[in-house]
């Protein structure tokens, strides 16, 4: 599948920006993992796609590096107050819903891969892990950029995307990893 076609699909889905990169351009920094342990999102040790269940930083890095390419996806959302968690949570949800739709389209066209989200998977609420049940959607679930220890600011820079978009704007990033 041609890179420009993938970018065009992402833009058609509504992403503000998209770029295809080789996975060797992704910068990983395991020092980010402790931020997950702070449990600001409430999913640490409570979601199959979050630490401690998703894998070690090295296992997560290897999962991505086992593939050749990724399409990096950016959404930009207007926010009047950066501490307004319901608004931010809805923006992340919107980003991930768009990503899931794009993943479905790409898979239908034969581009197999997996999603890295703007936050941990929220396909089930609560996660079936909390209920002691197996994951309902193992082929669709996604871990967040933080769980993968991806240095998102550097990723955005390498893709020519703004990380800090300016006053009143908030960017979210994700990617679809494939061969």
Series of H and E elements: HEHHEHEEHE
Low-confidence stretches: none
Radius of gyration using CA atoms only:
15 Å
Total number of helices: 5
Structural class: alpha+beta
Helix content: 25-40%
Termini distance?
Answer: 9 Å
Q: Biggest sheet: strands side by side, in what order? A: 1-2-5-3-4
Please, what is the average pLDDT?
95
Major sheet: 5 strands, mixed
Strand residue percentage? 15-25%
Tertiary shape: globular
Overall strand count: 5
Plain-language structure description:
There is one protein chain. With 179 residues, the chain is α+β, with helices and mostly antiparallel strands. The protein is 31% helix and 18% strand. It contains five helices and five strands. A five-stranded mixed beta sheet has the order 1-2-5-3-4, sandwiched between helices. The protein starts with a helix and ends with a strand.
Break the fold down into its secondary structure elements and pairings.
Layout: H1 3-13, E1 17-22, H2 33-37, H3 57-65, E2 69-78, H4 85-108, E3 113-117, E4 143-144, H5 152-158, E5 169-178
Parallel strand pairs: 3-4
Antiparallel strand pairs: 1-2, 2-5, 3-5
Helix pairs in contact: 1-4
């Amino acid at each position: 599948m041609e890179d420009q076609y993938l970018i065009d699909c992402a833009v058609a889905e509504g992403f503000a920006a998209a770029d295809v990169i080789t996975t060797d351009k992704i910068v990983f920094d395991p020092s980010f993992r402790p931020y997950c342990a702070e449990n600001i999102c409430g999913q640490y040790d409570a979601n199959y796609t979050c630490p401690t269940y998703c894998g070690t930083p090295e296992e997560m890095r290897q999962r991505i590096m086992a593939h050749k390419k990724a399409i990096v996806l950016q959404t930009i959302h207007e926010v009047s107050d950066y501490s307004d968690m319901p608004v931010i949570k809805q923006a992340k949800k919107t980003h991930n819903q768009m990503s899931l739709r794009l993943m479905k389209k790409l898979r239908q066209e034969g581009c197999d891969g997996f999603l890295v989200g703007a936050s941990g998977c929220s396909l089930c609420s609560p996660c079936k892990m909390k209920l002691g049940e197996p994951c309902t959607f193992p082929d669709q679930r996604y871990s967040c950029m933080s769980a993968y220890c991806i240095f998102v600011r550097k990723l955005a820079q390498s893709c020519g995307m703004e990380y800090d978009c300016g006053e009143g704007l908030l960017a979210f990033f994700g990617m679809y990893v494939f061969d």
